[in-house]
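lol forgot to send this yesterday, sorry. struct tokens for the thing we talked abt
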């Protein structure tokens, strides 16, 4: 097993430690990517970057069409990779969309997002997880504060902080429809959480995460370190948020009439492939943490276009 640089879920106390990995991974081969020095510095300081309208209106129209198609295809599916809202049949998340053999597979390889991920991670990348998150109007539930890396490290065996999430806004994200909230600078600190990972924890945590979440005192400390600042990832459809794997984030419930939908691609460095989970438990399913047939992404500049017939890999 790889050396555990970030122990967590051991004992009954929370510990905060400094991260041991760089935020921006320097590599001359990728230093001429699309991000400017100022943008790289902002990402290093804050743990995220937001680009308004990275995809144009025509592309957004296609995205919305494919979003609607995906919702209809999965509405009646009762499988682990389609997560429903607690207490209702509303879809919360659809996982592993980058294997749909259609639109989202092509979107996952788009050079605008892949080249940025390569530059930030200093290597070729692959997708270790992908999903569409739906937060319906009036019904969308909150998702409590957490660091993705804490979960990916404990439950998936991600060795180091050399991954990031790319969130593409598919419907306008307002301050009042449950947008993602992030604590600037929180990625510089690792919150080691108490407790033990339950068996098959993913079956409940994808609806409501209770294991691997920070306590109130740790959250107060992180927000104080940020000068009391909590940012919201708001913007029009077509905007893109990149955020570091250890950035503390969460979202409130959506009691507005306006749904919120985003597609997430988690880019991991090919030099940071998953090992055995550091919790000592069995690995989570492939749809949550890709391990099989891993290969680096070859970025493409193909024009985004509708797909007339999407067939999910192994699923209809």
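and heres what i got for the seq, position by position
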């Amino acid at each position: 097993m790889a050396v555990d640089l970030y122990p967590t879920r051991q004992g009954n106390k929370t510990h905060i430690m400094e991260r041991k990995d760089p935020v921006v991974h320097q590599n001359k081969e990728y230093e001429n990517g699309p991000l400017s020095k100022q943008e790289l510095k902002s990402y290093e300081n804050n743990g995220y970057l937001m680009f308004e309208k990275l995809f144009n209106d025509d592309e957004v129209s296609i995205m919305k069409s494919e979003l609607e198609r995906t919702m209809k295809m999965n509405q009646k599916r009762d499988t682990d990779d389609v997560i429903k809202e607690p207490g209702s049949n509303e879809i919360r998340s659809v996982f592993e969309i980058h294997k749909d053999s259609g639109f989202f597979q092509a979107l996952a390889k788009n050079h605008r997002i892949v080249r940025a991920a390569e530059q930030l991670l200093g290597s070729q990348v692959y997708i270790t997880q992908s999903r569409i998150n739906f937060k319906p109007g009036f019904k969308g539930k909150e998702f409590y504060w957490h660091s993705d890396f804490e979960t990916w490290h404990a439950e998936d065996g991600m060795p180091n902080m050399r991954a990031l999430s790319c969130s593409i806004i598919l419907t306008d994200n307002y301050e009042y429809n449950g947008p993602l909230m992030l604590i600037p600078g929180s990625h510089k600190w690792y919150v080691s959480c108490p407790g033990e990972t339950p068996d098959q924890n993913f079956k409940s945590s994808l609806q409501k995460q209770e294991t691997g979440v920070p306590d109130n005192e740790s959250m107060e400390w992180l927000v104080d370190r940020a000068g009391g600042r909590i940012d919201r990832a708001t913007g029009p459809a077509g905007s893109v948020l990149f955020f570091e794997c250890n950035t503390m984030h969460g979202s409130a419930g959506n009691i507005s009439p306006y749904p919120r939908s985003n597609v997430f691609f988690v880019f991991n460095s090919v030099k940071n492939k998953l090992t055995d989970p550091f919790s000592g438990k069995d690995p989570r399913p492939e749809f949550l943490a890709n391990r099989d047939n891993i290969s680096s992404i070859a970025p493409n500049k193909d024009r985004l276009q509708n797909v007339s017939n999407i067939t999910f890999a192994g699923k209809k």
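The longest helix spans residues 57-74. anyway ping me if u want another try
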